C-alpha cells in the first residue's frame, strides 16, 4: 500500500501529464484477432453482461481536407465525390449487416466522427439517416444525442449541410478550434481555420440554433505562453458554446509532428497551471465540469456518448477506422494505419459482406473491471463490478483507490460509491494509468517503442536530426 501511495505521490509531485484516457484498453494494446472471431458472436456474448441492453452508435467518416500536425486519428486526405459516394454505400451496407445487433438494444446516441464528416454533402446524410430509419425506425425517439465532427472552414464553406443536418435531427456539433491565437493555429497546421473563420463558424451555428455547440482548446502548443492561453480561454468563454473541452497536447509517435521531429511541443508540469486557469474561468462563466477535460452548461451541453461509454454502455463502431467497445472484445475491422488503399479495401469488403474484426483486445473479467475503473471514477458505484468478481479481486485495485483517497483525489460515500474530488478531476489521467493491467502496459510499451524506432530510422535516412522524446515511460502510456 505504501509503495503504491509513494508511486502515485511521486507522479503528482513531478506533474506527469499522461495522454487523456478516453478508452481502455488503448488502441496501442490491440493485436491481430483469430479469423474465427465473428462480430455476431462478440455482440451475442456482450448481451449476457447487461441487465438493460443499450447501445451507442459511432459512424466513422475518415476524409479530411488537410491533416493537422498533432493528429494520429484514422484520417485520409480526399475530396473525391465518387469516393464519398462509394464510402457511404459501404457504411450503409455495414449498418444493415448489424441490424440484429442494433435492434437487440435500446439506441442511446449516434455520433458521426472522423475525419471531417461535414465534408459530405446533404444527399450522403439523407442516405445515412434513411438507413437508420430502416434498421431502427424509432431511433429519433430513443436517442439522447445526434452529433457530428466538423472543422470551422467546412461549416463556413457549406452552411447548407449543417442546416440540413439540424432538420434531420442533429443536436450537437464538435467544431475543432484548438486555439484563438493566430500563430498557434498556423503552427498546428490549421491555417484554413484562422480566427476569422472560427468566429464566422460559431456565428453560423448560432444563427441555425443548433442546441449544443462543442469546441475545444489545447494546452502546450509550441510558442504558447500563459498569456496566450488566457487569451484563448477568455475569448472562448465570451463565445459561450454549450460544451468546452481542454486537452493537454499529446503528440504520439504516429502523428506527423512526431514522425518529422520538426515540432517541439511543451511537456511541462507548469501546464497544470493553465488547467487551473481554464477551470476557474469556465466555472465563473457558468459551466460545470463533466470530466477532467470537459465543461458543459447544465441542461444543454455535454458529450453524452462519451459519458455513457464510460458508464459501461457498449459502443458499436462502423466505418473504416471505427473501434467497437463491447464487454467481451474491443476491436477494429480495418487496419490501424490509414491509407486510401485501406479505405478501398473497406469499401470492397463491406460490399461483399466480408468485414470481420481484424485487431483488438479480448476482455477478461479483470479487464472489464479495469475498464470501468480507468474510465469511470468520476462517479462509480463499485457494486456494479460485483458481477465480474470485484470482491475477490479487490486486492488488485484497492491499493490504488486507497492511495488516491489518502492523497485527496478520491472520496468514498457510505453506499460504496466512489467519486473524484476536484484534485482527482485535475489528475485523473495519472490515477487512471495506475489502474492499467500489466498486459496492457506491456503491449502499449512495445507498440510505441516500435513507432519511435521507425521514426528515428526514417529521419536518419533523410538526414534529419533524431530527437528523442523526453517523456517518461508512465506519461508515454
From TrEMBL:
Residues 49-288 form the Radical SAM core domain. It holds the Pfam family Radical_SAM. This is Heme chaperone HemW. It comes from Streptantibioticus parmotrematis. The lineage of its organism: Bacteria, Bacillati, Actinomycetota, Actinomycetes, Kitasatosporales.
Amino acid at each position: 500500500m505504501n509503495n503504491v501511495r509513494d508511486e502515485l505521490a511521486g507522479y503528482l509531485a513531478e506533474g506527469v501529464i499522461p495522454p487523456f484516457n478516453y478508452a481502455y484498453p488503448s488502441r496501442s494494446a490491440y493485436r491481430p484477432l483469430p479469423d474465427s472471431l465473428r462480430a455476431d458472436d462478440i455482440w451475442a456474448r456482450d448481451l449476457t453482461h447487461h441487465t438493460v441492453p443499450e447501445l451507442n452508435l459511432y459512424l466513422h467518416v475518415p476524409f479530411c481536407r488537410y491533416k493537422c500536425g498533432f493528429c494520429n486519428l484514422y484520417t485520409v486526405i480526399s475530396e473525391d465525390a465518387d469516393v464519398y459516394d462509394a464510402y457511404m454505400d459501404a457504411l450503409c451496407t455495414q449498418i444493415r449487416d448489424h441490424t440484429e445487433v442494433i435492434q437487440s438494444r435500446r439506441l442511446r446516441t449516434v455520433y458521426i466522427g472522423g475525419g471531417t464528416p461535414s465534408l459530405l454533402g446533404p444527399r450522403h446524410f439523407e442516405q445515412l439517416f434513411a438507413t437508420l430509419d430502416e434498421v431502427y425506425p424509432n431511433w429519433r425517439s430513443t436517442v439522447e444525442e445526434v452529433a457530428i465532427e466538423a472543422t470551422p472552414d467546412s461549416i463556413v464553406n457549406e452552411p447548407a449541410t449543417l442546416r440540413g443536418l439540424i432538420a434531420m435531427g442533429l443536436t450537437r456539433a464538435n467544431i475543432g478550434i484548438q486555439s484563438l491565437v493566430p500563430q498557434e493555429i498556423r503552427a498546428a497546421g490549421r491555417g484554413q481555420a484562422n480566427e476569422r473563420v472560427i468566429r464566422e463558424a460559431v456565428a453560423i451555428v448560432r444563427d441555425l440554433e443548433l442546441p449544443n455547440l462543442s469546441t475545444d482548446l489545447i494546452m502546450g502548443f509550441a510558442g504558447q505562453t500563459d498569456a496566450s492561453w488566457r487569451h484563448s480561454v477568455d475569448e472562448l468563454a465570451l463565445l459561450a458554446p454549450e460544451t468546452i473541452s481542454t486537452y493537454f497536447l499529446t503528440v504520439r509517435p504516429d502523428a506527423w509532428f512526431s514522425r518529422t521531429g520538426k515540432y517541439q511541443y511543451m511537456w511541462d508540469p507548469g501546464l497544470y497551471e493553465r488547467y487551473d486557469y481554464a477551470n476557474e474561468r469556465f466555472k465563473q462563466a457558468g459551466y460545470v465540469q463533466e470530466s477532467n477535460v470537459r465543461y458543459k452548461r447544465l441542461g444543454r451541453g455535454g458529450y453524452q456518448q462519451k459519458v455513457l461509454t464510460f458508464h459501461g454502455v457498449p459502443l458499436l463502431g462502423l466505418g473504416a477506422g471505427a473501434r467497437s467497445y463491447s464487454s467481451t472484445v474491443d476491436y477494429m475491422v480495418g487496419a490501424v494505419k490509414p491509407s486510401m488503399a485501406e479505405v478501398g479495401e473497406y469499401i470492397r469488403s463491406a460490399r461483399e459482406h466480408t468485414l470481420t474484426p481484424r485487431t483488438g483486445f479480448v476482455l477478461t473479467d479483470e479487464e472489464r473491471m479495469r475498464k470501468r475503473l480507468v474510465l469511470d471514477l468520476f462517479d462509480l458505484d463499485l457494486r456494479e463490478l460485483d458481477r465480474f468478481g470485484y470482491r475477490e479481486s479487490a486486492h488488485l485495485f484497492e491499493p490504488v483507490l486507497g492511495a488516491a483517497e489518502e492523497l485527496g483525489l478520491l472520496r468514498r460515500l457510505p453506499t460504496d460509491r466512489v467519486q473524484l474530488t476536484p484534485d482527482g478531476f485535475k489528475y485523473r489521467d495519472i490515477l487512471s494509468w495506475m489502474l492499467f493491467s500489466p498486459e496492457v502496459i506491456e503491449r502499449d510499451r512495445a507498440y510505441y517503442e516500435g513507432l519511435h524506432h521507425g521514426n528515428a530510422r526514417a529521419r536518419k535516412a533523410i538526414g534529419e536530426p533524431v530527437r528523442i522524446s523526453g517523456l517518461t515511460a508512465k506519461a508515454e502510456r
